[in-house]
Amino acid sequence: MALVESLQKAIDYMEDHLLDNITIEDIAKQPNISPSHFQRIFMILTDISVGEYLRRRRLTLAAQELSSTNSKIIDIAFKYGYDTPESFSKAFRKQHGVTPSEARKGIGKIQSYNRLTIQVNLKGAEPMKYRIVERDAFQVVGVKREFPCGAEDAGIPGIPEFWSEANENGTVNKLIQLNSGQIKGLLGLIENFNEEKNTVNYWIAAEHSGEVPDEFSSLELPASKWVVFEVRGPIPSAMINTWKQIYSEWFPSNRYEQAEIAPFEAYIDSDLYSPNSYNEIWVAIK
């Protein structure tokens, strides 16, 4: 249950510092997880980004303060991190559907987002099939693109279009031909979270042991022990559900911790949308 306890520690830290200008690095220090891994785990378990959670909670408290005090709207705006009344009003209306002035007058309904509590259900869960393998360092080659992290859900906008483009321009076929490693199929890999820009690099890649063609980039994944989860069912729902199980069920009930190596999805089946489609998720462990 160490993962659950460490994530709850990070959430408690966010709640204790809602009025401060905290960073993802500050938050990730609490569970002793890298910022990129913490952001990913948080988004998978909660379906929102860290930044979106902080925004929702701050605007929830701001609405409560508007309704219960006589504090000036401009003072409340500054208190909850907004430089101008206009930016506060815009964000407030987006969340609550009313302006701060209307909320003070009791017009409309307030949308409240309560404090998160991480809970894990280990009883009656669907069985998970996995294997553990040890690998020396290996290389993946492919194309990468920088994407903004999703603000309001766990998805990263633009990735489906990236795959479509790679299919249409022949990149996918070239990578399939280059695949010469143990992992069959194409890989979807996220790495290099940039907090300042709130972006990540997403790779469409394949394991390849030879020379890297000029048109592709390469990334070496260091030697590690990996847990390889079976993913059964149509993409993308089967992948999403398995990721949630990994962090809400498997890690809390096992002695392993996630290593600081980018995890990835392996798209192996020729029919990704079949009810019996077989694919994998690889997560480095320690």
From TrEMBL:
UniProt domain HTH araC/xylS-type: residue ranges = 8-106
Q: Name one GO molecular function term.
A: DNA-binding transcription factor activity
Among its keywords, does the record have Flavoprotein?
no
UniProt key word Nucleotide-binding: no
Listed A to Z, the keywords are:
DNA-binding, Transcription, Transcription regulation
- What InterPro entries does the database record attribute to this sequence? AraC_E-bd (IPR010499), Cass2 (IPR029441), Homeodomain-like_sf (IPR009057), HTH_AraC (IPR018060), HTH_AraC-typ_CS (IPR018062), MarA-like (IPR050959), Reg_factor_effector_dom_sf (IPR011256), Tscrpt_reg_AraC-type_HTH (IPR020449)
> Which SUPFAM superfamilies does this UniProt record tie to the protein?
Homeodomain-like, Probable bacterial effector-binding domain
Q: What is this protein called?
A: Putative HTH-type transcriptional regulator YdeE
**Species of origin:** Bacillus methanolicus (strain MGA3 / ATCC 53907)
Q: What is the lineage of its organism?
A: Bacteria, Bacillati, Bacillota, Bacilli, Bacillales
